[in-house]
């Protein structure tokens, strides 16, 4: 009996939708599926997503793209994703502790200005370590907002019960049944918490934003390791 064909999957979790594609051994697209998720606007300028809805859409598009293909025929899945969007969840239950705060949400504008004002060089103070300005776009200010506005979240983070991730981390954690809490350099570099020279979480940056290191995912290479 001839061997069943093998495929590689690509999961593209974007700001407005989730798409999954399968590529055959010749690199041709074998199938694809896409599904949108809800955009939540609790206040003007605020943007949120439901992490559980994103997970359900992920399962849906993978199932539709597989069709009659067995999951065992898929050798690997690569993930690309909306970058700075911030999710915090309970590692014991797998339940999000708040909606995902989306990269384009402006709720942390005042918080970013407040942080930048602590330094003589203002919003550019962290450029040498991160390559980034202190602005609402990146994950660190979103985490601080969650600490300040979700009762018990900071204490849970200190205890190691509340864990953080961008969307790649959230989906990998779900796809591996909670075994892998991991991100890559390209996502880590968009948080204002990773040192772009060491490619690791930076203790000084964590202190500036008050982020417990134990809530952060492990930073791994994008493609030279098998995750899960």
Explain what this protein looks like in three dimensions.
29% of the residues lie in helices and 23% in strands. The protein is built from 8 helices and 12 strands. The chain has helices at residues 51-66, 109-116, 127-130, 139-149, 153-158, 167-175, 185-188, 203-209; strands at 7-13, 17-23, 29-36, 48-49, 74-81, 87-90, 100-101, 162-165, 182-184, 194-195, 200-201, 218-220. Strands 3-2-1-5 form a 4-stranded mixed sheet, with helices on one face. A two-stranded antiparallel sheet has the order 4-7. It has a two-stranded antiparallel sheet with strand order 6-8. Strand 10 and strand 11 form a beta hairpin.
Detail the topology: elements first, then pairings.
Blueprint: E1 7-13, E2 17-23, E3 29-36, E4 48-49, H1 51-66, E5 74-81, E6 87-90, E7 100-101, H2 109-116, H3 127-130, H4 139-149, H5 153-158, E8 162-165, H6 167-175, E9 182-184, H7 185-188, E10 194-195, E11 200-201, H8 203-209, E12 218-220
Parallel strand pairs: 1-5, 9-12
Antiparallel strand pairs: 1-2, 2-3, 4-7, 6-8, 10-11
Q: Can you give me a brief rundown of this structure?
A:
The protein is of the alpha+beta class and 228 residues long. It has helices spanning 51-66, 109-116, 127-130, 139-149, 153-158, 167-175, 185-188, 203-209, and strands at residues 7-13, 17-23, 29-36, 48-49, 74-81, 87-90, 100-101, 162-165, 182-184, 194-195, 200-201, 218-220. The protein has a 4-stranded mixed sheet with strand order 3-2-1-5, with helices on one face. It has a two-stranded antiparallel ribbon with strand order 4-7. It has a two-stranded antiparallel ribbon with strand order 6-8.
């Amino acid at each position: 009996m001839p061997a069943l064909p093998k495929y590689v999957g690509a999961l593209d979790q974007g700001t407005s939708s989730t798409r999954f594609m399968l590529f055959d051994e010749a690199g041709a697209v074998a199938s694809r599926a896409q599904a949108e998720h809800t955009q939540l606007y609790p206040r003007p300028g605020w943007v949120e997503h439901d992490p559980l809805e994103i997970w359900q859409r992920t399962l849906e598009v993978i199932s539709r793209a597989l069709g009659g293909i067995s999951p065992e025929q898929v050798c690997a899945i690569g993930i690309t994703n909306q970058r700075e969007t911030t999710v915090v969840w309970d590692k014991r239950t797998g339940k999000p502790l708040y909606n995902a705060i989306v990269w384009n949400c402006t709720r942390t504008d005042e918080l970013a200005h407040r942080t930048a004002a602590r330094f003589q060089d203002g919003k550019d103070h962290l450029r040498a370590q991160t390559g980034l300005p202190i602005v609402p776009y990146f994950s660190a200010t979103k985490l601080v907002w969650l600490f300040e506005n979700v009762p018990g979240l900071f204490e849970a983070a200190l205890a190691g019960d509340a864990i953080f991730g961008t969307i790649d981390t959230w989906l990998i954690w779900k796809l591996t049944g909670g075994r892998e809490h991991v991100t890559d350099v390209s996502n880590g570099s968009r948080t204002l918490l990773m040192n772009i020279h060491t490619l690791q979480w930076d203790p000084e940056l964590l202190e500036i934003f008050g982020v417990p290191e134990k809530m952060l995912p492990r930073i791994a290479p994008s493609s030279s390791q098998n995750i899960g």
